[in-house]
Amino acid sequence: MTSSQQPAFRALADPTRREILQRLTHRNMTIGEVADGFEMTRAAVKKHLTVLSDGGLITMTPKGREVVTQVDPLGFAPIRDWLSFFEHFWDSRLDSLKTAIEQENNHDANDQ
Amino acid sequence: MTSSQQPAFRALADPTRREILQRLTHRNMTIGEVADGFEMTRAAVKKHLTVLSDGGLITMTPKGREVVTQVDPLGFAPIRDWLSFFEHFWDSRLDSLKTAIEQENNHDANDQ
DNA sequence: TTGACACGATACCAAAAGGTTTCATATTAA
DNA sequence: TTAATATGAAACCTTTTGGTATCGTGTCAA
Questions:
Q1: Which residues in B21-37 are b (16+ Cβ under 10 Å) and which e?
Q2: Which member of B79, B86, B93 has the closest CB to residue A83?
C-alpha cells in the first residue's frame, strides 16, 4: 500500500501553510481573507493554498468571483495512517518491554 | 505554545527520509547499513539522517568507528500534538453536526 | 605499524521552493 | 455600461534542498 501521502506531507512542511490550516479551522475564508492575515503577497498566499489543495488538506470552492477555502478532514487520513504505523511500533515495543520486565521480576522472585 | 515542530515536519516531508524511518523500526542500523539500502551516495543518505536527527526523529550514537541510528519515539510527539489539534476540531465539528441533526429530527417530530 | 574501513566535512551543482511583480479575466455593484 | 473587486497566471529572482565528488580523520584488524 504505497499510497501517495507525499503531497500531504509536503504541504505540512511549511509553517505558513500549517498556520493557514489552523486559521481555517476557526472559519472558512476566501483567498483574499486568508491573504489579509499574512504579511506577504496575495499571490504567495495563493501558492500556499494551491499546495494545501494539492495535498488534499483543503478544498477551494468558487463562489461568484470569490473562492472559499475550507479544511478537509479527509485529507489528513494519509498522514494519520502513516503515523499509526509508528504508534503500533511503539505499542509493541512497550508490550515487549513490559513482558520482559515482568519476566525479569518473576525470575528475581524465584531466585530469592 | 509555538513549540518548534518545524524541524520534525521538515524531516517528514521527504519520501526517502520517511522510508528510512520505517526501515529503522525493524532494526537499528549504522549509517553505512542505511546507505546500503538506497541507490544514492552515502553522503546523501547521511544528510537525510542529519535532517532526521535535527527533527528529533532519530538518535545517532557513536559506537567505535560506526554510528548507530535508531528511531526516537519522543520526536514524534510534536507532530502528534499538532495533529491532535485537528482531531479535536473534527470531533467537535462532528458533535455539532450530530447535535444539529438531533435537533432537526426533534423539530421535524414536533412539526408532525 | 599499516592498511582498510566508517565516518565527517567541504565544495560544488541542478532543481525545487518561496516570494515578488505584472498583467489578464471574470464578477459585481453603482 | 463602467469601474472596482477577486482571482488566475506567467515571468522572474533568491534561497533551500537533494544530490554528487573529493579529501581528511579516527578506529580497527592483520
A1: beebbeeebbbebbbee
A2: B79
DSSP secondary structure, A30-44, as one string: EHHHHHHTSSS-HHH
Q: Residue B51 CB: number of other CB atoms within 10 A? A: 20
| Site from A3, A4, A9 to mutate, B interface, most B CB atoms within 10 angstroms | A9
Q: Is the CB of B38 under 7 A from strand C?
A: no
Residues 6 or more apart in contact with residue B43 via CB below 8 angstroms:
none
Q: How many helices (H) and strands (E) does chain A have?
A: 5, 3
Whole-prediction pTM: 0.86
Is the distance from CB of B12 to CB of B18 less than 8 angstroms? Answer: yes
Give the per-residue pLDDT at A2.
46
> Which residue's entry shows cell 544528510?
B47
Q: What is the pLDDT of residues A56-95, one digit of tens each?
A: 999 999 999 999 999 999 999 999 999 998 888 777 766 6
Residue lying closest to nucleotide C5, CA to C1': B65
